[in-house]
Amino acid sequence: MAQLENRGNGNWRVTISAGYDEQGRQIRIRRTIKVDPAKTEGAQIREVERQAAKLQADHDRQLLTASASVSIAALSEEFLSMLKGRGKVAQSTLRQYRDLHEHWICPRLGKIAVQQLTPRDINAFYSKLEKTHKKGSDSLISSTFRRKIHQQLHQLCAYAVRSGYISVNPVDRVEAPGNDTGEARFLEADEIFKLLGILEALPIKWRSLFTLALFTGLRPGEIAGLNWGDIVDGVLTVSAGSFQPKGGKPQRTSKPKTKGSIRSLVLPLEALDLLEQHKADQEAFKKAFGGGFPEPDAVFTDDEGYRISTNTVSKKWLKLLRAHDMPSVPLYGLRHTAASLLIAEGMNARDVATQLGHSTPTLTLNTYSHSFRSANQRAADAAAAAIKKIREENA
């Protein structure tokens, strides 16, 4: 039976038996459990006994380690190393995770042992985040960004549960920050028409790149990661992405962002024709380049022959919009624009999800709810108009 010790202010030390060592000495596992100090002692005891029973059950199922103290910082490094070793997370995603850990989670919670981390600690952390400004800016970090930190902290503590360091994820007891991301920003029909005219005056590399994004809805990283071998008989197969290591050149990944991102897309003739023109232009550039071309199979490269960077493409895109007095829609907005066009033409959520490489149609519905509502409203209006016409003709 677990031993309970009230250490005051809602802190209880729990000791459970973990068997005996080779010398016959009893092995004990101790954990400090934090409960609401405002509750009566009897209520505190019942809560501690419940958690102590779970600790004992986890130990009996070999899910609990005897480690008494593992800091959030040490746990973070272990967690990130595990993700890297498994190789199931895209390198660009892993880099984002590491940034959240190194710049946000560990500086504020890193010294706390995961066994001692409480919902109160986490709420205090979130309260400070609400008052934190963006680096070099007067504006506060968004609740959407705070939610990303919350999700990563939850994953970290879930890993601690799976690893036997703790039996309960403390983040489960904390309310997640809200998500203030607005609806997906995309170009309207008149803006698309204007854009097509603007693209005609661009060098073939940029015209083919932006046209490809508009016609297919490919992610910027998927476009940067394209090889000529991915395009066969007018069909483009997405089987990789791209990432840029800190201080290094962009690289093609071994796989795309998610399993659902692997897909084959039939290219519209206009986009295919532009790509063929770009390839011919690129071949001429290679000959003039002389020597070894750094990325001979990459579809889009920079002036030095290296795979193009998504940052370079994004800057080019925004500069183009500003030069022609177009709305400041981010590069990813071309993907949203492509999706809105498909929805406007009556394509259902499952088919749009397949085109975009979404893991589930639910993600597509949530991301483009406004576009689907508009399409559904047009369908409802069309049905109503048809019924009205029947009534008038048969009155």
Percentage of residues in DSSP E strands: 5-15%
Following the backbone from N to C, one meets helices and strands in this order, namely: EEEHHHHHHHHEEEEEHHHHHH
The total beta strand count reads 8
Distance from N terminus to C terminus (CA atoms, Å) equals: 84 Å
The figure for the number of domains is 3
Contiguous uncertain segments of 5+ residues: none
Our count of helices gives: 14
Enter the CATH topology name of the largest domain: hpI Integrase, Chain A
Mean pLDDT: 86
Structural class: mainly alpha
Spatial strand arrangement across the major sheet: 1-2-3
Largest sheet: 3 strands, antiparallel
C-alpha-based Rg, rounded: 28 Å
CATH-scheme architecture of the largest domain: Orthogonal Bundle
- What is the CATH level 1 assignment of the largest domain? Mainly Alpha
Q: Which shape, going by the Cα principal axes?
A: globular
Gist?
By secondary structure, the chain is mainly alpha-helical. It has 14 helices and 8 strands. It has helices at 41-60, 72-86, 91-109, 119-130, 143-162, 189-199, 204-216, 220-224, 269-289, 310-323, 333-344, 349-356, 361-367, 369-393; strands at 3-8, 11-20, 26-34, 231-232, 235-238, 242-243, 251-252, 263-266.
